[in-house]
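The methods section describes the discrete structure representation at length, but only in general terms. An entry of this sort, consisting of the sequence and the corresponding backbone structure tokens, reads as follows.
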Amino acid sequence: MGSQPKVTAVILNWNDSERTLFCVESVRDCQYSNLDLIVVDNGSTDNSKQQLESQLRQENLIINEENLGFAGGMNCGISEALADGTDYIWILNNDIVIEDSGIVQQLVDVFESNDEVGIVSPLVRKHPMTEQVWFSRGEVNFSNGDVGHSNIDISSINRELLQSEYVPFCSPLIRSEIFDEIGLISEDYFLYYEDADYCQMVVNEGYRIVTAVNSVIFHEVNVSSGGMFSPLFSYYRARNRWLFSKKHGNENFNVLLYLWWVFKAISHRILYQEFASAKAILQGTLHGLAGKSGKGPYPKS
């Protein structure tokens, strides 16, 4: 019997070494013999660097001097893993909690028996340890740029794999050859929508994107962004929604529907007196219309 395919988990840290190290321990507890781990500190301004250096072997740690955004930070780890000959890349948010030690083997088995699958995501439930499903299937509305979760009653599913148009990049496993064919994750977005962008390119190459509904992880939602009313979340969701739509929407994209979403989003925040968030949406919209990409005005540090 041949050796197991090599899997490399890449975890991104930014000012949150405690969660990152907890995530590292849960990865180490996985029962999969050919599993490597790379942690990327993405320009943290707290004591993360010192904490990570004291707990991790140096070959498992990459230190970025500045915040390169989600894609930029992840690409550093992915590039190193590819150079080391890994078969699969396991992208992990540092707020992921792994309870099933057999999850790596479960996800690898999906690829080993389905050549047409390019990306597989586990079913994602909300942490702390609830039955509430945060993600089961992703859908893209190309008319207005909305990327959302079309969660369904899992108990009604009589198959192991659920077809998706995209999966969030909190815990997907990706074939290494995908990166050879498509390249690394686009750094135009800095934060948010890079997963939908990459998934669309994977689909365009003829691969399937699926959710393995019997494989479950838990996710602390919006920990790093500060929630949906934070200026950071609001700015990048508004700007990148436009950038994604202009790139992938084609003739289906309707500018008026996008602007209607902007109007509703700003109105909603004003109603709840979240004025900084409303301002960030307007700023993100204007920057998107102007074609600005990469790092924006957030985070401040």
Q: What stands out?
A: The mean pLDDT is 93. The chain has two domains: 7-219, 231-290.
